[in-house]
Write a structure and sequence with these properties.
Layout (H helix, E strand, L loop, with lengths): L1 H35 L4 H22 L1 H12 L1 H7 L2 H48 L22 H64 L1
Helix pairs in contact: 1-2, 1-3, 1-5, 2-6, 5-6
Membrane topology: Multi-pass membrane protein
Keywords: Membrane, Olfaction, Receptor, Sensory transduction, Transducer, Transmembrane, Transmembrane helix
Pfam families: 7tm_6 (PF02949)
Length: 220
């Protein structure tokens, strides 16, 4: 059982770190564009807290205190099961279940944030830039900045759908993603405190059981 938990934790850690570093890579790719377009004030203002929060999230996930807490929980598993005490087993099942909920929540929210960041880039490279190469639209502006960006009527529906989706993902990129990351930070910190409290209760109860066993042995 310990092996399963360790494997689950390693999988969660690797997936989360991959998502974080992909996000940082895409943010890094934006720096030259922003540097050459000093009028992009919104992007500059948005990226500073985003970089800070994302870097903080990576530090939290890689911090030794959290890793030690999880490893300590895993290490206690055999002793808890060997005790056979129903109350200890009940507490153990609660924190195991909650711990997996936290990991699942982390992966879902981080994936959502990653998609919201990366999707605008995909649309830029797959839709906008090919139109520019074929001489469609103004080179100085992206298609969603123009009311009628194409020369043929059959392009309008495709352009409208693509630009509407791009505009939506851009709004998410500017506003929703940093909010999601901040919520994730607060939620994770709160749940880790809960898990730490549960772990302390397990230790206290375990020590109490041991003391009672010693007293029974002495009396015998």
């Amino acid at each position: 059982m310990v092996t399963i938990n360790v494997t689950w934790y390693k999988l969660f850690k690797n997936v989360s770190h991959t998502i974080y570093f992909v996000l940082l890579a895409f943010l890094y790719l934006e720096i030259p564009y922003i540097w050459n377009n000093s009028d992009q004030i919104i992007k500059i203002v948005n990226m500073i807290p985003t970089f800070t929060v994302l870097a903080l999230k990576i530090c939290i996930c890689r911090s030794e205190s959290i890793a030690d807490l999880i490893c300590e929980m895993v290490a206690m598993e055999e002793n808890i099961k060997a005790s056979g005490d129903k109350k200890i087993l009940g507490i153990y099942k609660k924190y195991t279940k909650r711990g997996r909920y936290i990991q699942l929540y982390n992966i879902i929210v981080n994936t959502t944030v990653a998609v919201s960041y990366i999707t605008p880039y995909i649309f830029k490279y797959l839709i906008i830039y090919p139109f520019k190469e074929h001489g469609i639209g103004d080179e100085r502006k992206l298609p969603y900045h123009m009311w009628m960006p194409f020369n043929k009527a059959d392009h309008y529906l495709t352009a409208f759908a693509a630009n509407l989706y791009l505009l939506t993902t851009t709004i998410v990129y500017y506003f929703a993603a940093p909010v999601l990351i901040i919520i994730l930070l607060l939620y994770t910190s709160f749940r880790l405190k809960v898990l730490g409290y549960i772990l302390k209760n397990i230790k206290k109860y375990e020590n109490k059981v041991r003391e009672n066993q010693k007293d029974d042995t002495v009396e015998a």
